[in-house]
């Protein structure tokens, strides 16, 4: 702030003590810059496993039956039930299923069951925040177990491997539960951890995890290694339950020092705990770290393999992707490193660990062509990481000038074509790092969707182009962001794939509107000469086993684990008024994805309607708890239908219209 900025004038010398979510260091940094905030971090909502419900639970039971009876005459019959139930649960969009009644061999039966099992395990074990965090309230035993547990994914779908994974996961949870239960009070809350853990770390059989494991197939697990693991989990548990949030507020109000600490994902970086700290981010010149580059290489390789598999064995020539401020702080620059690895360059740190130059990786070492990129930086990323934007721009332009064949260097190929078409230098044509104009944020598509203030998708795409086409230029230091819409459009028109990252279990695609606000999938289709829709991918690095899924797979997974999941929506309902608003927000964000990508299946809206509108008891709870958000929920269903994103019966639409009229009357206080 300068002394003529309004925030500076308005805050004067008033202390600004600001509770801020521990997982949002980038916006906490902005709060410090704009209003001199003394932030105090609070714990994010407790995470739990999504669990299984309705047809998914029935599927799990059928799979258990199949495993015990598959070698009897009932095996084929049970598999037939599994296939039909999986189709009722719309899993046929995610798993290739044979036709009902089709004769398949015993080996093929195992594979079908294994793949369905793997998919429902993925849904069941996904972490989701339940309810809202209450300042100063210790977590319950169940919440603490979910926070401490460690998960691994399984991709292959081989039945015995998936079953082993389930046994390991269930046993891990059981052992951790036995451990945590020793530290709970009569209300089931975790308290006095330090004193109680001292008595837990005895010797031999009275250790709770040893007692639990003694009745499982893992009774011979190495006790010494288990002690080391549970000693670490004990330290984590102390940090999770440490009650510093209220104490830090009291200290700040007394004008005392509040201890600083990093913000970010507590699972990735336990130093974020205990909460109640004055949040700081990181040295922006320190990213990407070597570890971030290693993780990035895995994700990029999986992304390119997935795109090749979906695109007739051909590499994508261009990937359009997004860089977020918070994500890069949490992961120490993983998504930044992904961009560098796509174009085939390696970041080089100096003796102080500052990354301020890059070097090209040889085509021989890379083993594939250099992939062109179109980088959309969020406004917060632009504010926090201007040095890294400079690094990226220099890297892209360096690659465009390498003397390499066009079929091995797509950056150069496209830059040469665009330079000729626009009559500009190759370096200018190789502009690939874009954001908003200085001082501006977001494409505003999210605001248009939230307020229903848009006419058609073309209007949303024009908003994206007009607000996001400001380029960074390393050759013009200090010039700020310059509008280069033509170069932006030409670069996007070569994109074969769009790509975003999910790096923490706390925030997913439909939790916030930012993700669809930055999604150019439908826009790219309109810009491409062949009119082909690009493949849209989401990398999920929330577990150690990074996954690359299609956007539609991720939207389905999100819907199953959150919006349609009783565990999630009942957790939200327990928070009252605000919980209903959170439910409505998820549906609005789902419509946002329909608008920008067209990747939301009809059944998602149909199931949401069954859950929140067709269920009379749920409908009344929503309407009575928060009539304003319920009105918006009903309006969003009607809008989804009106815009062609949801096909449903006329009866459903008529009921929604009547409900809208009823809730309007309720809000206005009219009693008909």
TrEMBL record:
Biological process, per Gene Ontology: chlorophyll biosynthetic process
Gene Ontology terms, MF aspect: magnesium chelatase activity
Domain CobN/magnesium chelatase: 1-652
InterPro entries named among the record's database cross-references: BchH, CobN/Mg_chltase
Pfam family, one: CobN-Mg_chel
Similarity field: Belongs to the Mg-chelatase subunit H family.
The protein, known as: Magnesium-chelatase subunit ChlH, chloroplastic
Species of origin: Vitis vinifera
Organism phylogeny: Eukaryota, Viridiplantae, Streptophyta, Embryophyta, Tracheophyta
């Amino acid at each position: 702030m300068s002394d003529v900025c309004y925030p500076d004038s308005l805050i004067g010398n008033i202390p600004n003590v600001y509770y801020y979510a521990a997982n949002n260091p980038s916006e906490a940094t902005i709060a410090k810059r704009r209003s001199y905030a003394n932030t105090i971090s609070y714990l994010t909502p407790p995470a739990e496993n999504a669990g299984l419900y309705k047809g998914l639970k029935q599927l799990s039971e059928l799979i258990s039956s199949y495993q015990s009876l598959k070698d009897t005459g009932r095996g084929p019959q049970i598999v037939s039930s599994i296939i039909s139930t999986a189709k009722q649960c719309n899993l046929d969009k995610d798993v290739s299923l044979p036709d009902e009644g089709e004769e398949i061999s015993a080996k093929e039966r195992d594979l079908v069951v294994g793949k369905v099992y793997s998919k429902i395990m993925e849904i069941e074990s996904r972490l989701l925040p339940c309810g809202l965090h209450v300042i100063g309230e210790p977590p319950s035993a169940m919440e603490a177990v979910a926070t401490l547990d460690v998960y691994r994914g399984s991709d292959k779908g081989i039945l015995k491997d998936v079953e082993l994974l389930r046994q390991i996961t269930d046993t891990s949870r059981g052992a951790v539960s036995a451990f945590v239960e020793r530290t709970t009070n009569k209300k089931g809350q975790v308290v006095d951890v330090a004193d109680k853990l001292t008595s837990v770390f005895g010797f031999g059989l009275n250790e709770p995890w040893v007692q639990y494991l003694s009745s499982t197939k893992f009774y011979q697990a190495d006790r010494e290694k288990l002690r080391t693991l549970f000693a670490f989990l004990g330290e984590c548990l102390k940090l999770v339950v440490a009650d510093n949030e209220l104490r830090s507020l009291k200290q700040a109000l007394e004008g005392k020092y509040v201890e600083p600490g990093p913000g970010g994902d507590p699972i990735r970086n336990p130093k974020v705990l205990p909460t109640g700290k004055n949040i700081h981010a990181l040295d922006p010149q320190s990213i990407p770290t070597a570890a971030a580059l290693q993780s990035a290489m895995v994700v990029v390789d999986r992304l390119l393999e997935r795109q090749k598999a979906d695109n007739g064995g051909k590499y994508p020539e261009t990937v359009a992707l997004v860089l977020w401020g918070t994500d890069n702080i949490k992961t120490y620059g993983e998504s930044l490193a992904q961009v560098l690895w796509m174009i085939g360059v390696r970041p080089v740190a100096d003796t102080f660990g500052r990354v301020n130059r890059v070097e090209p990786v040889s085509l021989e070492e890379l083993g594939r062509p250099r992939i062109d990129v179109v980088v959309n930086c969020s406004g917060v990323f632009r504010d926090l990481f201007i040095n890294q934007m400079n690094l990226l721009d220099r890297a892209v332009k360096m690659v465009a000038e390498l003397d390499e064949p066009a079929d091995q260097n797509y950056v150069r190929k496209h830059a040469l074509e665009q330079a000729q078409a626009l009559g500009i230098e190759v370096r200018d044509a190789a502009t690939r790092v874009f954001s908003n104009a200085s001082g501006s944020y977001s494409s505003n598509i999210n605001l248009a969707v939230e307020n229903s203030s848009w006419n058609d998708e073309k209007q949303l795409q024009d908003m994206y182009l007009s607000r996001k086409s400001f380029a960074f230029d390393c050759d013009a230091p200090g010039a700020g962001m310059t509008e280069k819409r033509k170069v932006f459009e030409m670069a996007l028109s070569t994109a074969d794939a769009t790509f975003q990252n999910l790096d923490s279990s706390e925030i997913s695609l439909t939790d916030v509107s930012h993700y669809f606000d930055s999604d150019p999938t439908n826009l790219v289709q309109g810009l491409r000469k062949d009119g082909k829709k690009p493949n849209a991918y989401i990398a999920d690095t929330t577990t150690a086993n990074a996954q690359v899924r299609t956007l539609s797979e991720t939207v389905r997974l999100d819907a199953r684990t959150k919006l349609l999941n009783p565990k999630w929506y009942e957790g939200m309902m327990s928070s009252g008024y605000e919980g209903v608003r959170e439910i409505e927000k998820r549906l609005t964000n789902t419509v946002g994805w329909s608008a920008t990508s067209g990747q939301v299946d009809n059944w998602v809206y149909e199931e949401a309607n069954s859950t929140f509108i067709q269920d009379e008891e749920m409908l009344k709870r929503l309407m009575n708890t928060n009539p304003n958000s319920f009105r918006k929920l009903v309006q969003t269903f009607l809008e989804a239908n009106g815009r062609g994103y949801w096909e449903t019966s006329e009866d459903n639409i008529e009921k929604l219209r009547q409900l809208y009229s009823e809730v309007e009357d309720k809000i206005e206080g009219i009693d008909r």
